Amino acid sequence: MEGVLNTAQTILTGYDVTLQRQIRSEERAWRAEDLAYRQHEREVASQELQFMLEERTFLAAQIQQAHVDNARALWQRFVNRNRTEVQEKAEQLKALSALAALLAGFALVRYEVGVEVAAVVLCSLMLASIMRVGKMYVSEQEEAEFMHQCHVFVSQYRPGHRPPAPVRTFAAYWAHRCEGEWSTAFRLFTIGVPCFFVNLALAGVFLEHCWRSRRSLVKCPAANCPTSCIQLATVVTCVVVGSLLRWHGGLG
Questions:
Q1: How many folded domains does the chain comprise?
Q2: Which of 206, 212, 213 has its CA nearest to residue 240?
Q3: Is the pTM of this model over 0.70?
Q4: DSSP state of 159
């Protein structure tokens, strides 16, 4: 009986040892899997952290690009405004120069031609100057300087700071360099227009006086002094005098 019990005890002990070994083996496998899973979690967390850092870098680059686009939009607006101002001033100078040349060509009088030619020369010189200077404000150097100012403004922004703006503008150049010459040219043109009207009026009066003198000397007025010419000269004189008065009234 005792031998049976010992045999049974031995069998149970061996079974228990085998079971314990199996349990330990399963625990080791589970721990290895757990360590591998934790390592995988650490790798995933590292990848997520790297992704977040790259996303922040991408967002910072996007913000920087947005600032650059805003600065470029401001520069383009400044360029368009300068281009518009240059075109407006160029059209003014061209119109005044053309009108002055037209009046000088109509009436070849020494004083009037000198005044109108002076206006034409001033307008031509100012036109060449603004067409040359207008390109300076849209150069790559000016753009790079303005973009740098915008970058400094973005990096050092504090509440209450005003955004940068180009210091040199065509409007300031026109006010300091061309406004006086433009006023002189326009004043010369306005002086030449009344002189032109006065010359036309005097020409009409002189023509009428000549025809009346010839009519008094020649016995056949119908052949040498048409009445229509005298009437035409009178009408031209009246129209010119009226235009002259209206011109002075408009200037006043």
A1: 1
A2: 206
A3: no
A4: T
**Cα separation of 179 and 183, whole Å?**
6
Domain encompassing residue 98:
2-251
Residue 97 CA to residue 118 CA, distance in Å, equals 10
pLDDT digits (tens, 9 = 90+) for 194-230: 777 777 667 666 766 676 776 665 544 444 444 555 5
Chain segment 68-107, per-residue pLDDT in tens: 787 778 777 877 877 787 778 778 777 777 777 777 666 5
Q: Which residues, in sequence order, are CB contacts of 56 under 8 Å at separation 6+?
A: none
Up-side HSE of residue 11: CA atoms within 13 Å toward CB? 6
